[in-house]
């Protein structure tokens, strides 16, 4: 483990023991102070960001990535508002999850406690820096942040401002820190910092997530790869089905809860397939279809890889299935376990689909786009877990905690 | 990944999709059938076990390990009773963990679902084979079992009987299977079977657990390493303290919730240390003490390694601390995060200790030996988690599940 990582993680660990005992009032005051400091420091942040953007342009970075990197006054204000929103959410720490008095009189309580130190590895916009810091702080966790190297000046500016604000609010600056160093080595060291880092959350593309899962000895919460399906059942209202397919695919294409694959029951294929092909193509969507879809102009033949693809763009794979169970079997084979939707008027089909499809979220007559911490009413999310251990689906504040048992007696022995 | 493991894990996965949809009535009937079959098959099991024992004796295995390996009619009956006890526990699958109607009318439910396929790697007695099979079946999970190679004949006999009973009860035999093959390679393959195996639970010594954590790409739940502390505060009732120390250390020494380290506040050291030294030595316990304990005959000087040791026998490390915070700091540095106890009459000391000590269980005026699924009223446990992700403390049936969100609308789009 590199000495630099040990040092930064050890300091985070010490900060975490203080933060774990901080009251909600202290944490909320710190979040408000962090928000105010971001607004005050807007010029500093934008100047640092302009350097990142200039360096990226010099390096020939494609425009959509530059766009993701660029901050403006509105985005900084949104970061500050995000911190204020988190301050208003209930504190998960200290919640009693279960409690009872045992037959021998021992009092048992299971209480939510922070993890300790959380590592977040991300590729996204610099605003994730403030979002992750806020969610970790509120849940009582110190956070080690590792953003994209292209955003290092922006992230350094944001973290510097947040650390000063924390200190002014009476909490250790080391509750929030950037992982120092260049290249992959610091990330590798972070992934091996078992005992110093309690949980790692990678946020980014499938490649990043796979490499963290493969290499990390620190427990990982996987987030965000979504090959989401919409299945149009024989009992579907086809107008509703069309609206849900279009919303799931086109309302926002670069996100993990966008639909990437469409399955249609053969009983409604003759009616529905021509309509949905036209609507998708009118919206600029390229369809990778099976034979039934392929009968329509402009549909590209689907390869085996298409059924597994997360396009994150104006593309969709599409096929006709003989029945509900074939749709379920197809989803079992190809889904990434994020979100699948059925459109049906049949209670029996909805019940079977929701029971048999093993994904973080299963929608009945609703767009896949609803799998989201904000939409679910969690107030904020740090990502969407597609693994089964610990937390599945949107990760809100409660999912950013562990628990412990507190057992009270008056001299009990066995 | 070895072909054999892929084959057995793929069959388990198929069985798991059937088992996940089985009703409680079906699962309980299968557990009763499995219990009856174990009793009917006692002769077969004991004959296989006798071969294991004979082979171990020939190999010069030490007597306490032979003892752990040996089954008799009583132990087989206890295995059967264990399955019946699990049948009587509530089914965790289908429990609604949270539910609400969102502002837009979408109905949101978070529902407990099985993991899918659970791998259990264990070194313990052959009765773990039936225990793990029962807990996994009831929680809707197919299980891949990898026991000690010295118990392979016993485990094969038990699993064969359980699989026949499952099939007779209308569930797939592949809900329970042994991982085939000799040596470490099959274990290695199991640890890399990401996508086929959902969770691995190692049960055994620190070496086994460390190697699984290091090598596994399948998510792991760590269990059972316990360097448990008892801290005797200045405000302790010293009779109570003596009883709790003696019970924590000597009631059963080979278990993870036995105390391995004793800390005494210096204000009561002059009174308490001589008493506890005498009582421990009378019980045959070797004390690895600091200077204060070392002033007593027969106390061995503690090395740095002693403070981290999990003796699992009649040994204890012991020291005097200047105050409560020094005890907490010592525990933070040396504890394995299993169970720590404070003996105190002070409400403030109890509150500070339970808040600041970050372990799976924190006891106030009670023996460390109470950290146990049975004692906690969970009915059964598959181990005691010392990690913070997913589950911490005794793993009962609810901890053997994941969850999913089911979202119902009537054509909702964003």
Structure, explained:
- The structure is a homodimer of 414-residue chains.
- Helices cover 43% and strands 21% of the residues of chain A.
- Chain A is α/β, with parallel strands linked by helices and 414 residues long.
- Chain A has two domains: 3-223 and 389-408, Aldehyde Dehydrogenase, Chain A, domain 1 (3-Layer(aba) Sandwich), CATH 3.40.605.10; 228-374, Aldehyde Dehydrogenase, Chain A, domain 2.
- In chain A, the strands form four sheets. Chain A has a seven-stranded parallel sheet, with helices on both faces. A four-stranded parallel sheet of chain A has the order 5-4-3-6, sandwiched between helices. Chain A has a three-stranded antiparallel sheet with strand order 1-2-16, with no helix packed on it.
- In chain A, helix 7 (152-168) links the parallel strand 4 and strand 5 (176-178).
- At the A-B interface, strand 2, helix 10, helix 15, strand 13 and strand 16 of A face strand 2, helix 10, helix 15, strand 13 and strand 16 of B.
């Amino acid at each position: 483990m590199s000495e630099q990582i040990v040092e930064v993680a050890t300091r985070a660990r010490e900060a975490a023991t203080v933060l774990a005992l901080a009251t909600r009032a202290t944490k909320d005051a710190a979040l408000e102070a962090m928000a105010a400091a971001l607004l005050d420091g807007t010029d500093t942040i934008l100047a640092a960001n302009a350097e990142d953007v200039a360096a990226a342009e010099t390096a020939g970075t494609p425009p959509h990535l530059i766009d993701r990197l660029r901050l403006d006054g509105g985005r900084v204000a949104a970061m500050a508002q995000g911190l204020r929103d988190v301050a208003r959410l209930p504190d998960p720490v200290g919640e009693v999850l279960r409690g009872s008095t045992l037959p021998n009189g021992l009092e048992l309580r299971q209480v939510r406690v922070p993890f300790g130190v959380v590592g977040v590895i991300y590729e996204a916009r610099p605003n994730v820096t403030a979002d992750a810091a806020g969610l970790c702080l509120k849940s009582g966790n110190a956070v080690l942040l590792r953003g994209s190297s292209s955003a290092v000046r922006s992230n350094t500016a944001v973290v510097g401002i947040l650390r000063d604000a924390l200190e002014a609010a009476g909490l250790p600056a080391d509750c929030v820190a950037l992982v120092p160093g260049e290249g992959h080595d610091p990330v590798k060291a972070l992934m091996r910092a078992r005992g110093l880092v309690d949980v790692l959350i990678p946020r980014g593309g499938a490649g990043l997530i796979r490499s963290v899962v493969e290499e990390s000895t620190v427990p990982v919460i996987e987030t965000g790869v979504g090959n989401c399906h919409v299945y149009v059942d024989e009992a579907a209202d086809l107008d509703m089905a069309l609206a849900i397919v279009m919303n799931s695919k086109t309302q926002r294409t670069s996100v993990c809860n966008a639909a990437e694959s469409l399955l249609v029951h053969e009983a409604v294929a003759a009616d529905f397939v021509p309509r949905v092909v036209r609507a998708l193509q009118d919206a600029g969507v390229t369809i990778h279809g099976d034979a039934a879809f392929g009968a329509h102009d402009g549909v590209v033949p689907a390869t085996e890889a298409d059924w597994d693809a997360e396009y994150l763009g104006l593309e969709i794979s599409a096929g006709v299935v003989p029945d509900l169970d074939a749709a379920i079997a197809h989803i079992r084979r190809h889904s990434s376990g994020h979100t699948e939707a059925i459109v049906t008027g049949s209670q029996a089909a909805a019940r079977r689909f929701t029971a048999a499809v093993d994904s973080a979220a299963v929608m009945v007559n609703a767009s896949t786009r609803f799998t989201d911490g904000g939409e679910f009413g969690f107030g904020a999310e740090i990502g969407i877990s597609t693994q089964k251990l610990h937390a599945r689906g949107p990760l809100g504040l409660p999912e950013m905690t562990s628990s412990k048992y507190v057992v009270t007696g008056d001299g009990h022995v066995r």
